[in-house]
Amino acid sequence: MAAVDMTGVRKKDANVSDLVFKYMRPEHLPHIWCPGCGNGIIMRDVAQAIENLKIDRNNLVVVSGIGCSSRAAGYFDCSTIHTTHGRAIAFATGIKVARPELEVIVITGDGDASAIGGNHLIHAARRNIGLTVIVMNNSIYGMTGGQYSPTTPTGDYGTTAPYGNIDRPFDVALLAAGAGATYAAHATVYHVPQAIKLIQDGIAHKGFSIIEVADVCPTYYGRKNKKGSAVDMMRNQKENFVTAAQAHRTCRSRKPGKRP
Amino acid sequence: MAKELIINTAWCKGCGICAAFCPKGHLEVKNEKVREKEGTDCILCGTCELRCPDYAIYVQEKKEA
After folding, report:
1. Which of A36, A206, A255, B29 is the most exposed place for a label (fewest CB within 10 A)?
2. HSE-up of B58 (CA within 13 Å, CB side)?
3. Domain A40-249, CATH homologous superfamily name and number
4. pTM here?
5. B51 touches chain A (CB under 8 A)
6. Which ipTM score applies to this complex?
7. Tens digit of pLDDT for each residue in A160-215?
């Protein structure tokens, strides 16, 4: 939508909001994600958090790996790097060690962070490296066709789990906290202001911070598990997610289905 | 400053999230594109902008043409 003129100054089209124009590359938008995919909402949350913290884009690095979520690095207009599968945190560690003054944000998916890059995640948490890791957790491998991932809930279906997933899922934020992360949070794509606040606190936090955002994947996870449309999946989040304080008060076994 | 609702139909993928969570029921999806419903008023709350995954709908300050 925005064109680059001969002087290299971007022209603003009337059809893009100020926030998106400032932090993203509108010439690459609309993005490739499916209709109703929550990744776009999380990407806007991150942009809003950066805007609220007034971080200079010249001091900002966005690193991503491989997967649906990792396309986000291409859309952010700052220093971005799209790395190999699962190694986003390893690349980000190198950037942070070489240039500690930079703000490094890693945008990754559930498979990228906890399966292929699981070791990098726990060791970055153990070393308490000053990264902000944002995990777009859609509970499935979306880009490769709906295989079950380490965060697919027990009994849920994927293309490689036609009789239901037999394993217990990872709680990525708790996994990182167990490995020594000094800031770990859960958020959802429905609860936007809370997610922006948590991402903002995570970026401002000195040390390793991880924000696991429960995403919606209407195309693979939704269809395989009969969760309905993107709207139904977001309503489901509205009804079934509770705050951390509520989760501590009520025993999870008494309220099955409720998630912190 | 007055504000206005802007819809970029070229970017809209018709997921219907904005229409479902609009507190005034002001939006509807027709032919896979969102549009403003007639007979209801937009209160410029910006809920649609927060939840639009495609940045196709937003509220901004009115610019004098």
Report:
1. A206
2. 19
3. Thiamin diphosphate (ThDP)-binding fold, Pyr/PP domains (3.40.50.970)
4. 0.88
5. yes
6. 0.89
7. 989 988 988 888 888 998 898 898 888 889 989 989 999 999 999 899 999 999 99
